[in-house]
Predict the 3D structure of the following.
Amino acid sequence: MDFSNISYLLFDHDGVLVETEYWYFKATQRGLAHLGIDLPLAGYRQHLVDGASNWEVARQQGIAEKDISAARANRDRYYQEYLVNEDINIEGVEEVLTTLTRRFHMAIVTTSKRQDFELIHASRNIVPHFDFVLCNGEYPRAKPAPDPYLTAIAQFGCDRSQALVIEDSERGLRSAVAADITCIAIHNDFTAHQDLSAAEQRLPNLRTLAELLAR
């Protein structure tokens, strides 16, 4: 594909700009453990594809909603602890963004909650490279619906043919495809089992994206 007409880059966040997906799994696993439920990694990864709720097992076992809500609150607390204490950096991200921001308008389009997003970036220099950020709840429907990316191009005031989505997951890719916006998939070990065949190209990392767009 000729990328010479691309002026706007729409980046997914988790798994593309920061390595948070494993830690969200661990937080969810710990939250469910409070209810006596074991969540294996394989089951969680499948739910990422089929969209099933990790909490539905608790409901099927007759666990009260108030107890599920308490466990989810624990999950949120665990996740924020991981965000602060674990290494979630992806090597080379800021370097690549510094290069790309010279030529492109850029936005982050994420399903992260705004409070988690702000915590992640409290001490990082990633967000200043972007024109704006869209978090969960700031568009009508989440991925895989097209709304997140359609909201982004509406905010830019650009045509979808001028935009390129950068994703690492099948749900994100499906969102881009539904919005009729070309998508490049960046490899991430956590989502490598997912079907990313609809991507225009699949790349091993962000550095190769910068090289591709520089041609």
